[in-house]
Amino acid sequence: MTLVRFVTNNDLEQLRRDATIASRKRLHLNVHRSYEENPQILYNCLTRGSYMRPHRHMLDRRQEFFVCLSGEVLLVLFSDTGEVESILSMATEGQSKVSSVIVDPLNWHTLICLSKRAMLLEVKPGPFRPNIAKEYAPWSPEEGDPSGLLFLEQAITHHHTAVDGTIAGGS
């Protein structure tokens, strides 16, 4: 049995290259060996223009912990009716940026990549059950729908207007 698992910088560079050409404009690399392991640890590489459908983890009640390793992403939290409740800017630089966050399983959320590419480390409790892992927001376009990015842009613009042009967020 192997007691040490590791991911090389070459592995992460390959993930970045592959995410750039992936149809969803994002990919992940699992550090865990199986869906049965606890915790589930993975690298998520997002590229600008990726649409991640808003979702929550109410069915399996599992928090997600994200650490921004490179680039910049927005974590957008929504109400049950699809209104933007808050936006957190995650980045490795900038005093007003968030470097890590825990997302409660009841929060509708998505991630938007602002930089050319961003790398996140994600940790969540296992085991992973694909059939109940995500509940997609019924008020949002499906993955692959070309209107997905426009939906997010309009939601953020509406939110900025509602809070007088500032980005809302928690501390």
Would you kindly provide a written description of the structure presented here, covering whatever features stand out?
- The protein is an alpha+beta fold.
- The chain has one domain (9-162): Sandwich (Jelly Rolls), CATH 2.60.120.10.
- Helix content is 16%, strand content 33%.
- It contains 2 helices and 10 strands; from the N terminus they run H-E-E-E-E-E-E-E-E-E-E-H.
- The protein has helices at 9-21, 148-162, and strands at 26-30, 40-47, 55-56, 64-70, 72-78, 84-91, 100-103, 108-113, 117-124, 135-136.
- It has a 5-stranded antiparallel sheet with strand order 1-2-9-4-7, covered by helices on one side. Strands 6-5-8 form a 3-stranded antiparallel sheet, with helices on one face. It has a two-stranded antiparallel ribbon with strand order 3-10.
- Strand 5 (72-78) and strand 6 (84-91) form a beta hairpin.
- Residues 164-171 have low confidence and may be disordered.
Keywords:
disordered C terminus, 33% strand, 16% helix, 171 residues, Jelly Rolls
